[in-house]
Amino acid sequence: MLNHSTSISAVRHAAARASRPLLLGLALVMSVGAAQAASSKGCEGGGFKVLGLSGSVSTTVPAAQVGSSFLVQGKYVQFEVDAATFGIRNYVLTGAPNALDMTGGVPTPVFAAKMPDHRGAVLNSGVDVDLKDTSIELMREGGQVTMKLQAKDCANGGVFQMEVARADGTATVFTHTLATHPSNPSLNAFYFDNRKFRDREGDAVPYKDTTVVVTPRVNFGNDYSARFVGRDSPQVATRLSDANCVNRIVKRDGTLATVSHCGLTSRWEVSSGGRMGMVFGEDATEVAPPATICTHKCQAQNQVKGQSTVLGAPFPVAPADRLAPRQ
């Protein structure tokens, strides 16, 4: 699992940043809500390379050595980082062999982009890089905004998160755009209303030593692999409805629910100190309470540890449950 308790203002960076415009009093931490860890099997042999670094290392790459974008390359995942914003592009599951592989052994594009709108603010400091085992943490600052990325090089589970903090304390809009394969339409990713959740809506199912009520679930998948399923995982973030993408989804009682969500994109208003995660596999289809609201000195408090009900996802997804338009 990505580390719930890692602070963006760790002591080891304090002296080096004494003269930078720190966002005082705010500690961004890793917490992917209720998402559970990728099994160690899903991470076997994983590890990242970035900016000429690999192995176990904690350092700062000077700004002069950071181009306009750079590649984060792992065994199971890879993505490009836009240096000025710390948005990412071309997030891909490589299809490397693994017991928990979801891709069917085929390189699978997931997101074309996950981009924050900093409203003109840019990141221009050196890039802090922490590499250890199968995990990576990247952080960069600017005069008005700080961004942190955390990722795991795993074939499954809670694998990615981006965090934001602004000096003015206002929210940041993130736009997520799913990927389109240039030559194989079956690999085009799409958002869908998960029928296995919709048909259990309102049911109380086991969760740890109590129960939790099933609510509707939006996942993303494709038409190539039945095992490929993911979910946007917010903490202190709210999805923005899109009036141009209004879907009517049939409920278990035959009535219609309105879902204002596009098939290709989602937009999120993320509070300063909030974060957006991404989870795959069972982590994306388990029934658990929403993540605890926390933006300061957060601790690991939403871990499920296999004690939830996993409803799964249908394959193939029925046309009526695919969110539209996908454009």
Quick structural overview:
Keywords: Signal. This protein has about 325 residues and is mainly β.
Molecular structure report:
The chain is mostly beta strands and 327 residues long. The chain has one domain. Helix content is 2%, strand content 40%. It contains two helices and 21 strands. It has a 15-stranded antiparallel sheet that branches. Strands 13-14 form a two-stranded antiparallel sheet. A hairpin with a 3-residue loop joins β3 and β4. The radius of gyration is 19 Å and the shape is globular. The two termini are 33 Å apart.
Write the layout of secondary structure elements.
Layout: H1 11-14, E1 49-50, E2 57-61, E3 69-73, E4 77-82, E5 88-93, E6 108-117, E7 127-132, E8 135-141, E9 145-152, E10 157-166, E11 172-178, E12 190-193, H2 195-198, E13 204-207, E14 210-213, E15 218-221, E16 229-240, E17 246-250, E18 256-260, E19 265-280, E20 286-287, E21 309-310
Antiparallel strand pairs: 1-3, 2-7, 3-4, 4-5, 5-6, 6-11, 7-8, 8-9, 9-10, 10-19, 11-19, 12-15, 13-14, 15-16, 16-19, 17-18, 20-21
Signal peptide: 1-37
Keywords: Signal
Mean pLDDT: 88
Which runs of at least 5 residues are low in confidence (pLDDT < 50)? 3-37, 299-303
Strand content: 35-45%
Summarize the helix and strand pattern as letters: HEEEEEEEEEEEEHEEEEEEEEE
Counted by DSSP, the helix tally is 2
- How many E strands? 21
Q: Helix- and strand-based class?
A: mainly beta
Distance from N terminus to C terminus (CA atoms, Å) equals 33 Å
Helix percent reads under 10%
Q: What is the count of distinct domains?
A: 1
**Radius of gyration from the CA trace?**
19 Å
What is the general shape? globular
Keywords: Signal
